Amino acid sequence: MIQRAFIGSLIILSSCFLFSCSKDKPAASTPPVTGGPGEVVGGTYSSDDLLVFKQMAIYGSALRIINKWPKKVAYYIVDTQYDYLTQEVDAVLKEINSLLDTNLVLTRTNVRSESNVQIFFTDRNTYLMAEPDAAPTLYNSTYGGLSYLRQQEGTLTSGSVFVDMERAKDNIPVQRYLVHHEIMHSLGFRGHATLTGIYTVLFYYTLMPYILNYTPFDKRMIQLLYNPLIKEGMGEEQVDKIVKAL
Ligand SMILES: [Zn+2]
């Protein structure tokens, strides 16, 4: 739920500006090879894994700290007229729940006041009327989505997810991509992976919409963020130490 009481807390944003793929991009029928994680040397995560994790979970945060939900998060779909997107959200929440066991429990509620994250499938103006603080980060683009979160000392408190249905109209693959991309952001991944060869829905935007599901690498990153040893508010040094010991 979005409460004015959170006004003093730091607001974090994740803005996604998705552009049409230019003609030198691979054909839609040729999805990118899911890049395997780099070689593991004496532990669960390679140095590339760790770098990408920090790009997604720390470097995108203004304070460069881990942002996580405490134990559970409830989503509310504001715009329920798209049955296939409601089903997509339910499938995404179910998939993430199966990855995270009870470290984080995601639910979908039909009671707005009980929700932590509101999901909007609408146009920019309607979304900004509900979430006016997001305006500075919502730029014009061919397609677009946004995950807007509030946090206190790394603990996520409330937020919203936006899929621009006006711009992605009639393009269901893009809509599906945006649902996966923005919900993954809403877990606390404020940045994007940029390392060549490792593909995630939070990888470079122009892969959109070739990746329509979480890749094995995405799933490892989600599990790492919600590993109980990774605590909200942790900085890079602490995360380095923990991940290298896993
Ligand atoms: Zn993004």
From TrEMBL:
Q: Which InterPro entries has this protein been placed in?
A: DUF2927, MetalloPept_cat_dom_sf
Cleaved signal peptide residues: 1-20
Species of the source: Terrimonas rubra
Name of the protein in question = DUF2927 domain-containing protein
Q: Which UniProt keywords are listed?
A: Signal
Domain of life from the UniProt record: Bacteria
State if RNA-binding is listed as a keyword.
no
Its ancestry begins with: Bacteria, Pseudomonadati, Bacteroidota, Chitinophagia, Chitinophagales
